[in-house]
Amino acid sequence: MTTKDIGPKGPVVKTGEAVVDYVDDRSGVKTGARWFLFRNIPKGTSWFQTLGFTAMALFGLQAITGIVLAMYYKPDTNTAFRSIEYITDEVTWGWLVRGMHKWGASAMIVVVFLHMGRVFIWGAYKYPRELTWVTGAVLLFMTMFMGLTGYLLVWDQKAYWATVVAVNITASAPILGPYVGDILRAGPEFGPNTLSRFYSIHMLVIPGGIATFIGLHLYFITRLGISEPPWSKRRLRIERDEEDARRRAARERQSLAGRTVVPAGEPAVPARAEVAE
Amino acid sequence: MKKSQQEAYKQDYAAAKKDGKPFFPYAIYKDSLIALLAIGIVITLAIVARVEIGEPVNPASSDFIPRPEWYFFFLFELLRIFKNQNVLTPVIMGTFIIPNILILLMIIWPFIDRGPERRIWKRPISMAVGTLVIAFMGYMTYLGATAPEGIGSGETIELEPQDEISTRGTELFIANGCGSCHMIKGVGAAGPGPNLTNEGGKNRGVQWQIDHLKNPQSKIPGSSMPAFASLPQQDLEVLGEYLNNLGTKYK
Ligand code: HEM
Predict the structure, then answer these.
(1) A207 in a domain, yes or no?
(2) Domain annotation for chain B: domains and CATH numbers
(3) For position A181, which CATH number holds?
């Protein structure tokens, strides 16, 4: 790394450069950051292409508010409800953090669905981005599962019975259902272990899964590049040119068949290879 | 997509990229703006619509409403539609078949729709499938959001003749929250459980009813009804008698 425009380098600058070079030589962070940040994306990317990033930002917000809640929450059937009351009524800003976590969950679901809708409508899941879509589908599934497991943690009547029904439904599925049901409940019945199991799934298992899959998702996106809007100016121009070429070729064929003379002034167009859209 | 079409796409995309702009800062600034807006909305909602605290869990308790988060409403609505009323609506359709078809369809969609075309108006089938799924889920969510949550306070079920069993049975039915999943004579929720107005006509027997309440899965495998094993034996007997005569003796 060389920095040229700061005059004679002091020892601090020199040491700093040496440290950065040392780390980059071994980890490739600089190369990686360049690969991620300074790649080109097509012109005319749309505001709809910000939704994926927004989902990611909301996941970050959930992580932060979740960590704060976990500092006060007590995952035990005797204390869970009380600790939620304590967070809401007594902890400074507790009501705000809990409110943000709750609304953030809904917002994340909405944004993820909108993101998926935009990918669908644009056909952005097509070659070569099929696996980006699959990792996204897994993310959607995990996001909804976060909602299910988090709902129970409040340990109030509404959530408890909704979860009982949801888990019973899961357990009623053929073949694997009963096993999944037992895994979720930590046994054949709802009990104290169910709550700590949901806590662990909600706090550790799925967030880890989501983080991993966001990583994969981003790797695919960076490697393949974000798709161009199907109706970008560039695409429309190409389509217009193709259409023109097609028309001219048709006219030419007709004129050859009818042996009519090509009108003067019209340049002979070589039959253009059709570019597949 | 044929090999040649894949190559053509790659070339076309490379051209778009060459002619493009760097991700940083052009995309990042748009992304950050919208993300900050979303976070702002979340904070505003948290301030304006404060979170509530419900009733603490009481597994033995009476009135409760099993109401999930709004994004699961569509699943609960499916249960209301498919509740074993006839052969065309087996419960498994709502609990297993339809949800899993939707999940599978979502995961393998890029391998079904493989054509090279990306413009909306040239992909009528994709758009039709997409619109159908979105409309279906949206409508089911709407139904779930507006469905009655159970029996309103003060509401009761008018049954003739009025005797000890029919009066006490109705009380227990309401107090134990059966009405948040079942309906009797138009009172209560239309699902996920079946309408019990004519339950007696099935001639299940009092003992069957009692055993079913204690452990629904032992009588109806795969039932999603919670167990009421903690009810006093006396109440179970009244409810059993009551259910076994609904629609026959008590109308
Ligand atoms: C936690 C949830 C998710 C996160 C954090 C996320 C994140 C992102 C980000 C940051 C992008 C870059 C472009 C953009 O913002 O539009 C993207 C693109 C993409 N996402 Fe997601 N996503 C999520 C869920 C999904 C889901 C549910 C699907 C579909 C089933 C999906 C499929 C895709 C595809 C195919 C692309 C590439 C689109 C293109 O190149 O135009 N993602 N995602």
Answers:
(1) yes
(2) 66-147 (no CATH), 164-244 (1.10.760.10)
(3) 1.20.810.10
pLDDT value of residue B57: 82
Residues in Cβ contact with B74 at an 8 Å cutoff, skipping those fewer than 6 apart = B137, B140, B141, B144
What pLDDT, in 10s, does the model give residues A195-212?
Answer: 999 999 999 999 999 999
Please count the CA atoms within 13 angstroms of the CA of B155 that sit on its side-chain side: 18
**What total number of domains does chain A contain?**
1
Residue B184's DSSP bridge partners are B187
Q: Which of residues 220-239 of A touch B (CB under 8 A)?
A: 225-228, 230-232, 234, 238
- Determine the angle formed by the axes of helices A94-122 and A80-89, rounding to 10 degrees: 100
ipTM score for this prediction: 0.85
> Does B71 contact chain A (CB < 8 Å)?
yes
Residue A118 CA to ligand 1 center (angstroms) comes to: 9
Percent of chain A with pLDDT over 90: 66
- Provide the whole-model pTM: 0.83
Closest CA to A194 of A226, A171, A228: A171
Contact A115, A207 (CB under 8 A): no
| pLDDT (tens digit per residue) in A227-257 | 999 989 999 999 999 999 999 999 988 877 7
